[in-house]
Amino acid sequence: MSEARVIKHKPAAAKAKSKKRRRDDDGGSRKRRKLAAYEEDEEYLDLEAGVNKKIASIDNLLLADHISKKIRRFGTDLNPVELSQLDISPNSITDTTSFLKIRTLENLPEFLETFTEPEKFGKGERLTAHHHRHRCRSVRKYQSKTNSIAKLFAKHIKVEESVQFLEKHRTGIAVGTPVRLSDLVDNSALKLDKLERLVVDASHIDQKKRGVMDMKETMMPLARWLARQEFKERYGDEEKGLQLLFY
Q1: Average pLDDT value for residue range 213-229
Q2: Which of 37, 98, 179, 234 could form a disulfide with 242 if both were Cys (CB 3.0 to 4.6 A apart)?
């Protein structure tokens, strides 16, 4: 009579525990939690001043890469070609790392004057993209009888009201959200023929540590606004150059 072989089977629960233990030994679960947008830049956040200092610390090359990563983070519904069409060339962005003051509301006028010829400031039209309407206060000093400041925000002002204002006033500086600015350009209420520069209020963060490039609902409209064909044709052009600044 041959000797019987006894094969012992480990319980399924024991196997599961063993696999879990191995994963823990390897440093935890393979699937890691995706960091929130603000957590990636946590070390740069100055909550008291309401500023993300990262924008001030990176040059035009790194900033273009930063924007590209944000576009791909939030533009998950776009194909590779559509994503690439939203990218901004580093040569299109003015390097502003030489401006050393913290980028608060109070320092915006000095920033603008630093990167603009003093004798021309206030004469050419400029558009600033903000996602909070109280940021308009920073450019009030440039308002005069012949140079109005247009507040163009989608949440608080009706399109018709914005159109009427632009028709009645000579506007030297327009401040608003990318969505409203785009809508006004599309219906010909906001003219771009004398536009000299675009300024993006990129450093400001809200109480939830979010800036204009940290949320899909603001980042993607901003990307589409900056990538308009009439802008891309002028970025870096020697004769009709359009300056792009990130504050």
Answers
A1: 95
A2: 234
